[in-house]
Amino acid sequence: MFKKILIANRGEIACRVIATARKMGIKTVAVYSEADKDARHVELADEAVLLGPAPSRESYLVADKIIAACKATGAEALHPGYGFLSENEDFARRCEEEGIAFIGPKHYSIAAMGDKIASKKLANEAKVSTIPGWNDAIESPERAVEIARDIGYPVMIKASAGGGGKGLRVAFNDKEAFDGFASCRNEARNSFGDDRVFIEKFVEQPRHIEIQVLGDSHGNVVYLHERECSIQRRHQKVIEEAPSPFISDATRKAMGEQAVALAKAVKYQSAGTVEFVVGKNQDFYFLEMNTRLQVEHPVTECITGLDLVEQMIRVAAGEKLGFTQDQIPRQGWAIECRINAEDPFRNFLPSTGRLVKYQPPAADLVQGSETLQGAAYEAGRFGGVRVDTGVYEGGEIPMFYDSMIAKLIVHGRDRDDAIAKMRAALNGFVIRGISSNIPFQAALLAHPKFVTGDFNTGFIAEHYAQGFDAADVPHDDPLFLVALAAFVRRKARERAAGISGQLPGHGVEHGSALVVVQLGADGQNVYHDVQLGDFDAAHGTMNVTVGGRVYAIRSTTKLGEILMTGSVNGQPFSAQVERGSAKRPLAMRIAHNGTALEALVLQTRAAELHKLMPYKAPPDTSKMLLSPMPGLLVQVPVAVGQKVQAGERLAVIEAMKMENILVATQDCVVKEIRATVGESLSVDQQIIIFE
User: Fold this and answer.
1) pLDDT at 372
2) 534-555 average pLDDT score
3) I need a labelling partner for 48 at 20 to 30 A (CA). Which of 41, 323, 371, 448 fits?
4) 66-122 tens-digit pLDDT
5) What SS3 state is found at 682?
6) Sequence-ordered list of residues with C-beta below 8 angstroms from that of 430, at least 6 positions apart, any chain
7) If you average pLDDT over every residue of the chain, what do you get?
8) In what order do the strands lie in the sheet with 101-102?
């Protein structure tokens, strides 16, 4: 077995590999860019080597620097993680030539299956069912339109070396095919250094289901069941689960056997994933093979009890698989939510900056669960709550890499149990300083069609076509949030009343009646009359009556703590409570099950006066182009005095490896340009002023 391995990656996957290596008694070497000098994976590893500047093309994508780091530290093996150089045939070959064990497949397997065009040709030769399409590189957008017409719209335009949603577009007409081809080539060239693009038929209402395979150097290959990955936004996975709620045992077996046959055809060694698109009648087609560890591998680990990173290391060291196909269990149900640094209420734009508060959910938030946090390699335990992450409180989310903060995984007895546990875990995940997609994840988990398993890859596009709004997360009992606000306010008043030294007749008092002012947009507030029972400070209990309903709330959470736990009418809850925001510094904010309530809790007379207060409208920004996110301004294709039509490009901002194009919403004339190309923008910074 290896004594020391180097992890040629960053973030949560680097931390994940380090956790397994530590369990196996293997020393680890981290590599890092200047932007990651204080990153968690650097701290966890036994050694760390600086690669270079922040951009990945100058650090994590430079093979020579990584090979040199292996030699300098004496690392015998290298784990590439996912992304970056993990599916680079030349890098894998170079490791082999330099005598460094590559903890992944051999270079010839990557060459055969990592290239999407080559892999589809190989699958056709092996008589594997594939999607109709044009599998050779396409040289121009005009040719792309011709091919798309021949195949028949809709079509999927894909970069041959793509992955993670990069270099992929769906086109429903000639214009979309023409524009999509150019965008795919540009993204592929920038992200992967390979601008080849191909086209295939887009299967409507498809399921995205993948089979995890594992092979060794002795000719053994097994499949570790399937993962359901159909909940996607812009072709990037949002929620993954294992097993799939859709396919039958017969389909599962057929897909698994086909995946194994394909892996054996290329003498596959290590962990890999064969992806299929599955139709409504459970007919399935080979899509591609990812010759690496997948982001969503934890759900497979939960239901099988196997540590995939450990298996990859053992295979790379020449060991045989320690089990056969019929010895692989399938226990319970696992769900993973990707927690990303993005603002769902601003069209999911990237959100970078400092993690002022970072508190992952504890196991006791989920009844009967055990925590796997801090032991990412441990799996297969019912009720487990697991957090795989590469960040920490006070750390920075840089603009140079992907947006993932953490992966939140739960393991339940069945799918309903897993969904309930995930909703509770999301309630207990505290992130401040940047925005996250937790409210969106909560909305997805509560959606009736997700709960019943009735969805496909178009689910988010269909149900959130106009973006995501707070109204998309209706609470099943909104008055509970009102009652909770009153409870917290009364608790604060109770504490204030107990402060010594108050002047007689002028001390803090608390009555039995309050008004919770639910603050709405444009001054549309709702006033809730609330009656309070006696407060038992020793046990943290009080009855709150609102809207004719009584809420018996019990909580001993200290004032000032964001995460509040307790019970209401005998049922446990966890919610997030805090005072003040940038726009409403005096308001109280209650968040629960993806819904947020902003409210003022007032005495009756104060509420009467509040109703008389005039509404102050926000400043008019209709003649400004504001940066919707932090990022790098890479292009301003307009000039002062230029007439711009609705739909034309105004600016291009780059953040987290994605280009974000800002377009004019109406015809206008450019009066002033206030930002320069190459400038790092902050949220709401002025870019252009219009006449």
Assistant:
1) 40
2) 94
3) 371
4) 999 999 999 999 999 999 999 999 999 999 999 999 999 999 999 998 777 778 888
5) coil
6) 357, 358, 359, 562, 563, 576
7) 90
8) 47-52, 27-33, 4-7, 77-79, 101-102
Residue 60: both structure tokens together: 């994590």
Amino acid at 584: R
d(CA 372, CA 390) in angstroms, rounded, equals 15
| DSSP per-residue codes, 382-408 | TT-EEEEES--TT-EE-TTS--EEEEE
β-strand partners of 344: none
Residues known to be catalytic = 288
State the pLDDT at residue 369.
Answer: 44
Structure-token pair, residue 165: 């949603």
Angle among Cα 28, 31, 34 to the nearest 5 degrees reads 145
DSSP label of 683: T
Which of 127-136, 517-526, 571-580, 642-651 is predicted least confidently?
A: 127-136
Element spanning 299, H or E: helix 297-304
Residue 605: is it exposed, middle or buried by C-beta count within 10 angstroms (0-12/13-18/19+)? Answer: exposed
Tell me the C-alpha distance between 542 and 487, whole Å. Answer: 7
Alpha helices in 24-113 (DSSP H): 40-44, 63-73, 89-97, 107-113
Asked if 658 and 644 touch (Cβ cutoff 8 Å), the reply is: no
Q: pLDDT tens, 191-245?
A: 778 888 889 888 778 999 999 999 999 999 999 999 999 999 988 999 999 999 9
Phi-psi region of 384 (alpha: psi -120 to 50; beta: other; left: phi over 0): beta
- pLDDT score recorded for residue 163: 63
The CB density around residue 253, as the number of other CB atoms within 10 Å, is: 12
Q: What letter represents residue 83's amino acid?
A: G
Helix (H, G, I), strand (E, B) or coil at 170: strand
Contact 531, 513 (CB under 8 A): yes
- Residues 660, 610 contacting (CB under 8 angstroms): no
Q: Write b or e for each residue in 512-540: b if 16 or more Cβ atoms lie within 10 A of its Cβ, otherwise e.
A: eebbbbbbeeeeebeebebebeebeeeeb
